[in-house]
Amino acid sequence: MKFEHPISIAPMMDRTDRHFRYLMRLITSRTLLYTEMVTANAILHGDKPRHLNFHSSEHPISLQLGGDSPDAMAEAAQIGEEWGYDEVNINVGCPSDRVKNGNFGACLMAQPELVASLVREMKNRVSIPVTVKHRIGIDEIDSYDHMKRFVEIVAESGADRFSVHARKAWLQGLSPKENREIPPLRYSEVWKLKEELPHLVVEINGGVRTIEDIQEHLEHVDAVMIGRAAYDNPWLFSDVDSLFYSQETEKISAPDLIQKMVEYTRVEVEQGERLPAITRHLLHLFHGLPGARVWRRHLSENSHLPGQRAELIQDAFDMMREKAQALVAD
């Protein structure tokens, strides 16, 4: 049976905030979206609206949580469900020092029984799916057998999906950025995991950049998660609904998308949001298209100036189109 969410956009710190998710929802109505990682303690003791608010159009949306306390994670998951999230996801993949020092993220791959207890307590408190995003391995704990054992132990607690970043993580010596690039991709091991544990829902993540990549992976696993390629080239998702969800809806045009983003931004700025907080997510919107450099420059050089309004987005788009027409004429 085809999985409900075959395509998702990975949770990315400083990337997948509510403004970026709103943009992506204009391009694809079906792709599963994720929040940035939020710690359980931030939800329990911090500014809940700031961490949890999202636009009603963003469904389906998953709340990614970080933490190592079963009670705190379960309580945060319950709050997330009450806030309206469609699922909660446990971060067992981030290798940053800050996350490691808090004893969550990728270092938890060395503690599968603890991750299983997190899932178990969260499942006891919520009715929405509880999923796990993890690495293929960490440090010297990086064999296929290690990963399979981790998944089998956590699966016993009822995890609803395993999203596997097909790179190991070095917790010492590599930065988070280097951990996204240096360790080699080992797709075949994720494919093997699904083959040997066919009853589990397995999603693959890491280095997926094209529609052709997605199609190849879906021959072997249930779902594909795209990270940096989604941020660097948002229009990649313009065909996702029709290709992978059999949804024959008309794709939004660039002028209509810009109009909706201007309207959205106007409301957000009137409510106190800073314009650059939104426009920074638009810089790569027209990746590879004629005039894209004009678009990026106008937004990046002017968004921070005093008195700028949402109409700056429309101005940048108009300038880009003029440049593109001039290039064609030449």
From TrEMBL:
Keywords: Flavoprotein, FMN, NADP, Nucleotide-binding, Oxidoreductase, RNA-binding, tRNA processing, tRNA-binding
Lineage: Bacteria, Deltaproteobacteria, Bradymonadales, Microvenatoraceae, Microvenator
Annotated protein name in UniProt: tRNA-dihydrouridine(20/20a) synthase
EC code: 1.3.1.91
Cofactor dependence: FMN
Active site per database record: C94 (proton donor)
Domain named DUS-like FMN-binding: residues: 9-317
Organism: Microvenator marinus
Gene (UniProt): dusA
HAMAP family recorded: DusA_subfam
NCBIfam families tied to this protein: PRK11815.1, yjbN
Binding-site list for FMN: P11, M12, M13, Q64, K133, H165, N205, G206, G207, G227, R228
Secretion signal, residue range per the UniProt entry: none
Site description Interacts with tRNA, residues in chain: N91, K177, R180, R293, R296
A Pfam family of this chain: Dus
Function: Catalyzes the synthesis of 5,6-dihydrouridine (D), a modified base found in the D-loop of most tRNAs, via the reduction of the C5-C6 double bond in target uridines. Specifically modifies U20 and U20a in tRNAs.
Reaction catalyzed: 5,6-dihydrouridine(20a) in tRNA + NADP(+) = uridine(20a) in tRNA + NADPH + H(+); 5,6-dihydrouridine(20) in tRNA + NAD(+) = uridine(20) in tRNA + NADH + H(+); 5,6-dihydrouridine(20) in tRNA + NADP(+) = uridine(20) in tRNA + NADPH + H(+); 5,6-dihydrouridine(20a) in tRNA + NAD(+) = uridine(20a) in tRNA + NADH + H(+)
Protein family per UniProt: Belongs to the dus family.
MF annotations from Gene Ontology: flavin adenine dinucleotide binding; FMN binding; tRNA binding; tRNA-dihydrouridine20 synthase activity; tRNA-dihydrouridine20a synthase activity
